[in-house]
Every structure is written in structure tokens, then in C-alpha cells.
Amino acid sequence: MLDGRVAFVTGSTRGIGWATARTFASQGAAVIVNGVTSQERVDKRVEEICTEFGVPCIGFLCDVSNPACVRSCYAEIFKKFKRLDVLVNNAGIVQDALLGMISEASIRRQIEVNTMGAIFHLQEAARLMLRNRSGSIINVSSIVGRNGNAGEIVYSASKAALIGLTYSAAKELAPKNIRVNAVAPGFIDTDLTKVLPKDAHAEWSKRVGLGRMGTAQEVANTILFLASDQSSHISGQVVGVDGCLVI
Ligand SMILES: NC(=O)c1ccc[n+]([C@@H]2O[C@H](COP(=O)([O-])OP(=O)(O)OC[C@H]3O[C@@H](n4cnc5c(N)ncnc54)[C@H](OP(=O)(O)O)[C@@H]3O)[C@@H](O)[C@H]2O)c1
After folding, report:
1. What is the CATH topology of the domain spanning 6-238?
2. Which amino acid residue places its CA nearest to atom 36 of ligand 1?
3. Which residue, of 180, 201, 242, 246, has the fewest CB within 10 Å?
4. Quick check: 34 and 27 in contact, CB under 8 A?
5. Where are the domains of the chain?
6. With 0-12 CB in 10 A as exposed, 13-18 as middle and 19+ as buried, what is 225?
7. What's the gap in Å between 175 CA and the centre of ligand 1?
8. Is residue 196 pLDDT above 90, yes or no?
9. What does the pLDDT look like over 32-76, one tens digit per residue?
């Protein structure tokens, strides 16, 4: 489905991003992986993709909230591939706190990583995509960005912003044949949710209509659909991947 395409997945050393990077590689794409904490982990992921799928793969240790670092990634991508076909703005963090307990540092960090990081990538990716007048951008928002959740005021604001920017970027870039969509995952089994206490897991799982957590692969499958030509007439949409979760 992605033969010959070049795809950048931010935050792809673990979780939904890693499942997406592997899925893209399995469909023939050259893949760019990214993480923030460990060069060793990034290198390992690059090696795993090259070995398992035999596609070109490079990796960047780069904080999405650092615009200079983001710019240097795209300069490198241009040097190596001369093009970019798909961007998945997936890197994200969550720092839960009730209103009175939210620190200024936590507000800044979540907005910088979840929202500003996505905008920095959107700018650079669109520049490259404009050269070929085609591309697909997928922003990983959250059901919390649509419905809200107690204790996640800043996280929900950062993820709701991704939905707004998806609508606006889709309108701005449609004349250039660049599609922009978002996915809104619900309760997905990754490191991000593993930290929740056992009773919170049980409570959340009960709220999912389908009766279980989603998997990173199930989100990756939806992202693949939006990245590929299977969704060639879809832009400016937010697709829930939440198993009918009620919050
Ligand atoms: N899991 C869920 O239930 C759920 C639900 C809704 C939405 N989401 C969203 O889905 C996305 C992925 O979540 P996940 O559950 O897969 O998370 P995860 O398992 O915690 O993985 C997060 C990934 O993002 C990377 N990352 C974190 N901060 C970064 C930064 N500043 N710059 C670059 N990379 C960074 C991490 O890299 P390192 O390995 O280097 O730390 C890791 O690869 C997030 O945007 C999250 O908000 C998740």
C-alpha cells in the first residue's frame, strides 16, 4: 500500500508510533523513526525495521518541541530521500493533575510536546510535500481532546488543539493535494496507560463498549488507511479508534 513512499512517524520507538512505523515498513515504505530518550533505542528500532522488512530506515533522537532539531531532521530527510509522502504526528505525553495541582512547567511541557511539536513538524513536512504536490499528514489526537476528562485539563487542551489544526491545515493544504486527518484513540494498551493503577484499568475497560482496551496495532491500521491512497478523498476528518468508549 505504501511502496516507494517515505514516511516519518514521530515518537515511534514505542507504543502506537512503533506499531505504525512497523506497519508502514510492512507495506513497503521507507520509514523515519524518532524518539527522545535514548539514541540506543532509536538505533535498535532502525535495525529492527531494516532487518525485518528490508526497507530503507533512518532514525532521529530529537525532541519534537525543539524547532532547530526538527528542522535539521528534515534537512537530513531531503538529503537522503529528496521527498516526504507521509507524516504522522504521534509523539505525545500525558501528565495528569487536578486543576489546583497543575504546575506551570507541566502546562508548558504538554503544550510544547503535544501541540507545538506537531506544528513544527507540520510546517517542515508540508514544505517537502509541496515539492511533489502530494502528501498525507495524520495527527494523533485523543478521545480526551474531543470529550474531556477530569484530571486531564492540559492534556485535553493540547489534544483538542490538534483537532483544530487538523481542520485548518486540511483547508489550507487541500489545493496542494496534501491531505490532513487526525485519529482520536481511546484507551490503548501502551506504556502510556500501563502506569495507571489496576482498578483504574478495570474501570476504564468497563467504559469501552467493546469491553477491552485497544491495541497499538489497531490504531496503526487506521493510520495506515489514512496514509494510503485507500483514503484518497478523505481530508479534514477525525477518526475515533476507541471501541465505543464513553467518557
Ligand atoms: N495509549 C493511549 O491510550 C492513547 C490514547 C489516546 C491518545 N494517545 C496518543 O497517542 C500517542 C502515542 O501514545 P502511546 O500510548 O503510544 O505513548 P508511549 O507508549 O508512551 O510512547 C510515546 C512515544 O513518544 C516518544 N516521545 C515522547 N516525547 C517525545 C518528544 N518530546 N519528542 C519525540 N518523541 C517523544 C517516546 O519516545 P522515547 O521512547 O524516547 O521516550 C515514545 O516513542 C500520544 O500522542 C498519545 O497522546 C494515546
Report:
1. Rossmann fold (3.40.50)
2. 11
3. 246
4. no
5. 6-238
6. middle
7. 31
8. no
9. 999 999 999 999 999 999 999 999 999 999 999 999 999 999 999
